[in-house]
Amino acid sequence: MRTEQAPQMDLFGEPPASPAIDGHAVHPAAVDEHVRALAGQIPSGVRLGTSSWHFPGWARLVYDRVADAHTLAREGLAAYAQHPLLRCVSLDRTFYAPIPQADYHHYAEQVPNDFRFLVKAPMACTAPVLRAHPYEREAANRRFLDPAFAVEAFVSPCLAGLGSKVGALVFQFPPLGRALLGAPASFASKLHDFIRALPRGPLYAVELRDHALLTTSYLDALRDSGAVPCLGLHPRMPVASEQARETGLDHRGPLVVRWNLHAGLGYEEAKARYAPFARLVDEDILNRVALARLAVAAVRRGDPVFITANNKAEGSAPLTVLKLAEQFVAAVRQISEP
């Protein structure tokens, strides 16, 4: 049974922010010495971040003041990217519709050279059925696993706009339905051909929401096409340690993780429970420890690490990142001790 916790202490020991009323741009929040020291112990190959950045509840955690979501969507990224622990971000708006190259370029201009984006492919690439409008029936999606569409609408504008600041391109598949679940080898074959037809160079990661599709055929398809599994922490999928074992991420390859949603909750339920996302409510120690260990293992073998957290994972994504960073440093020390 979950129990409500006392409000999380402010990370930086400062009073609540006042609303922005002077039209001044959003600036980064003050960062205390603990956070700076912690960031200094995270290797450059480990990038932690959050799913998007436009949350008013992050005042004094990430931003210097309270600002509305619209203002933060427009101005918040530059401030977000100055936080020493936030060295990547999951660009999620691209899942709902393709965006132009100019938008990617605008994002890239706001962040330092060592910052990276995890970018979600449009659902038009990964959903076998779609609604043209919210109140219409679902219909077969002719662009499902169409590499020509994916390149034109997503890969090319993304690479051209973000350039070297691309971390991973993530193809997240929603629950795919009975027909595809009944033919996992066929899905793996189609996925293989799709990824093989994409431009070489970027790190492609594939995230499933159907455990039944995580088969040997699926893993072989990813390996042969040069993609990696994205470890997606979601109630529909196993915990981090089990997914890592099943995919081989515990001993090889780049580690791409999207910590999406707390076990036992739906998105709307989690949103209502956790808003305004300013404190940890349901800490997930099991997955936190597993992710830290996986990240340490990846660093030791020289593979990059990208981990992003959603507010709906524990209650506040920036605080999840802080706790994960502390767990990573503790795991390094534990391994280093004789």
3D structure, described in words:
Strand 1 (46-51), helix 2 (69-80) and strand 2 (88-91) form a beta-alpha-beta unit. This protein starts with 32 loop residues before the first helix and ends with a helix. It contains 13 helices and ten strands. The protein has an eight-stranded parallel barrel with strand order 1-2-3-6-7-8-9-10, surrounded by five helices. The protein is of the alpha/beta class. The model is unreliable at 1-23 (pLDDT under 50). It folds into two domains: 24-45 and 55-86 and 229-338, no CATH class; 89-226, Protein of unknown function UPF0759 (TIM Barrel), CATH 3.20.20. The chain is globular, with a radius of gyration of 20 Å.
In short:
The protein is an alpha/beta fold and 338 residues long. The chain has helices at 33-40, 69-80, 101-109, 123-126, 147-162, 178-181, 184-196, 216-225, 240-247, 267-274, 285-301, 311-314, 317-336, and strands at 46-51, 88-91, 116-120, 129-130, 139-140, 166-172, 204-207, 228-233, 255-259, 305-309. It contains 13 helices and ten strands.
How are the secondary structure elements laid out?
Layout: H1 33-40, E1 46-51, H2 69-80, E2 88-91, H3 101-109, E3 116-120, H4 123-126, E4 129-130, E5 139-140, H5 147-162, E6 166-172, H6 178-181, H7 184-196, E7 204-207, H8 216-225, E8 228-233, H9 240-247, E9 255-259, H10 267-274, H11 285-301, E10 305-309, H12 311-314, H13 317-336
Parallel strand pairs: 1-2, 1-10, 2-3, 3-6, 6-7, 7-8, 8-9, 9-10
Antiparallel strand pairs: 4-5
